[in-house]
Amino acid sequence: MKTIYFDYNATTAVDPAVREAMLPFLDEVYGNPSSIHQIGRRARAMLDDARERVATSWRCRASEVVFTSGGTESNNLAIFGTARHLRGKGRHLITSTIEHHSVLQCFQHLERNEGFNVTYLPVNSEGVVDPDDLAKSIRSDTILVSIMAANNETGSLQPIESIGETCRSKGVVFHTDAVQWFGKEPFERVQQFNADLVSFCAHKLHGPKGAGALFIKSPLHPEPIAFGGSHENERRAGTENLASIIGLAKTAELFLKPPVFPRDALMRLTDHLISAAGAIQGVEFRGSRSVRLANTASFTISGSDSITILAGLDMEGICASSGSACSAGSLEPSHVLLAMGVEPDLANSLVRFSLGRDSTLEDVDRVVEVLRGVRERATK
Predict the structure, then answer these.
(1) Active site residue 167
(2) Which one has a higher pLDDT value, 325 or 8?
């Protein structure tokens, strides 16, 4: 039985060229970049070179690139670091109701434990923030706005450039979680987001896990959230994971321009998937048909739940995902779908298909066929 992998938004396989670039740094180049002897200096030179390469890909200064362990840490550093750095100027923060948990839980912590006030912007039925809502929410004490570029559950794209322009005109720092954007949408330079902070991770576009980066526009200097050394220009303590950083640099060079996810081809596949799956009784597409990641199509399945559907798909060799989290045997409805106005029972049945460069029309047809059978069995 052929395995069909439709979970590219969760992670991707490391590209052979990326893996090849990393191999020397798992063996011969093993020094600590902070050591002053020749082996350490060699590692430092390679680290500096990797930073320059990412900066060239992003068209920014090397000093504006901070390496992290992934998208979660990049988001945490951007939000905690900036809020704490600027708290003397104000304690009002703005985000949206559909952010990744690595963003939402930062704001919730700051609100509960550190005396900040947070405005959570609503979204429309397609999961998109209205820039006018943002403009109306900015106050004299607003210091940080964080809105994702592309939603991981529905693929809905946010009006980031417009949001960034509003923040800049108001003198408010803007962060965007662009983890799902990179490698899928057209990219020329990191400044296109109109953001002061931009989160990136490698494993969403055929790079290694455990490798991320944060663009920090000069001269902003968020407070560190990890302590114990002056690494990363005193912004992120800890010995650098050089092998993964080299992999990240290679990933940025290979897969940002043009995006490794072929947009036109994937849009044709997901349009077909949306039409064919949407014809199944009880299956409803969720998100935007036009303003979305080309590789992403999400559905709710009435009369069932995510885990039941995903288990049925998995038994047929199909790997998909969900917006639900399973904790201690209980299912939580997708917070993204709830924010879009979907009823809790349906929000508990989200199934996300995210395609990649190797996906085919035959794969899509097979998924639709299996989904039809799984849905029928699950709702009997």
Answers:
(1) no
(2) 8
